[in-house]
Amino acid sequence: MNFAPHPFTLRQLQYAVAVADSLSFNKAADECHVSQPSMSAQIAEIEQVLGVKLFERDRRQVLITAAGLELVERARAVL
Q1: 56 torsion bin: left (phi>0), alpha (psi -120 to 50), beta (else)
Q2: Among positive and negative, which fits the CA dihedral 78, 41, 48, 31?
Q3: HSE-up (13 A, CA, CB side) for residue 21
Q4: Rounded distance between C-alpha atoms, residue 18 and residue 31, angstroms
Q5: In angstroms, rounded to a whole number, what is the distance separating the alpha carbons of residues 65 and 51?
Q6: Which of 11, 45, 56, 79 is the most buried (most CB within 10 A)?
Q7: pLDDT of residue 59
Q8: Cβ distance 16 to 3 under 8 Å?
Q9: Share of the chain above pLDDT 70, in %
Q10: Strand partners, 62
């Protein structure tokens, strides 16, 4: 079993699941009681560490990528 530290936190995983559930950074931020810029920054940090986009976003919608689906599935198991 590998006990090496992961490059992201449980809170960041919670944020990713919240965004995936609501498909909205604003709604996810409200549900997690954080600001939307903070939520976006935490998701961006996970994406940077992993080197993949988890969500495709524009002004109107948020879509989850294939990598995002895989991460969220694993995050749910962990959480």
Answers
A1: beta
A2: positive
A3: 14
A4: 8
A5: 13
A6: 45
A7: 82
A8: no
A9: 92
A10: 57
Q: What does the radius of gyration of the chain's CA atoms come to, in whole angstroms?
A: 12
Identity of residue 14: Q
Cα separation, 71 vs 68, in Å, equals: 5
Q: Show the low-confidence residues of the chain (pLDDT under 70).
A: 1-5
- Contact indicator for 26, 18 with CB cutoff of 8 Å: no
* 76 three-class SS: helix
Q: Which amino acid is at 19?
A: V
Distance in angstroms (rounded) separating the CA atoms of residues 47 and 71? 11
Query: Residue 1's pLDDT is what?
Result: 45
d(CA 37, CA 70): 24
Contact by Cβ (8 Å): 16, 43: yes
Quick count: other Cβ atoms within 10 Å of Cβ 48? 11
Other Cβ atoms within 10 Å of 7 Cβ, number: 11
